[in-house]
Amino acid sequence: MSATQFAPAAMPNSTAEQRAVDRVAEASHRLNEAVRRAIEAGYSVELVRTSRHHDGAGNWGDQIVPTVRANSAEKSA
């Protein structure tokens, strides 16, 4: 079996703003998948806002941390 050769995909010329939005969207998708997997493994997950970041120019964003707890109820077969 031969090794597959991978090459970087060409990235479109995006604006800094579009790249920032894309990074947040990609991270959100990964976070949502991780939450689904935790739930399937028997955990409850709550995302809690810990702070709000401001840049001084009117822009802001919420920062979060997950709280995770094991489910004490038995899974049905």
Tell me what the structure shows.
It is a single chain. The protein is an alpha+beta fold and 77 residues long. The chain has one helix spanning 16-40; strands at 43-54, 60-70. The protein has one domain. It is built from 1 helix and 2 strands. The longest helix has 25 residues, at 16-40. The radius of gyration is 19 Å and the shape is flat. It starts with 15 loop residues before the first helix and ends in a 7-residue tail after the last strand. The model has no long low-confidence stretch (mean pLDDT 89).
Write a short abstract of this structure.
The chain has a two-stranded antiparallel ribbon with strand order 1-2. It has one helix and two strands; from the N terminus they run αββ. The protein is an alpha+beta fold.
List the keywords:
single chain, 77 residues, two-stranded antiparallel sheet
Indicate the percent of residues in helices.
Answer: 25-40%
Provide the structure class. Answer: alpha+beta
Tell me which oligomeric state these chains represent: single chain
Per the principal axes of the C-alpha atoms, what is the gross shape? Answer: flat
Main sheet characteristics: 2 strands, antiparallel
How big a fraction of the residues is strand? 25-35%
What number of structural domains do the residues give?
Answer: 1
Low-pLDDT runs: none
Query: What's the overall average pLDDT, rounded?
Result: 89
- The neighbouring-strand order within the major sheet is 1-2
Number of helices: 1
The beta-strand count equals 2
Q: What is the ordering of alpha helices and beta strands?
A: HEE
Taking Cα atoms only, what radius of gyration do you get, to the nearest Å?
A: 19 Å
**Distance from first to last alpha carbon:** 41 Å
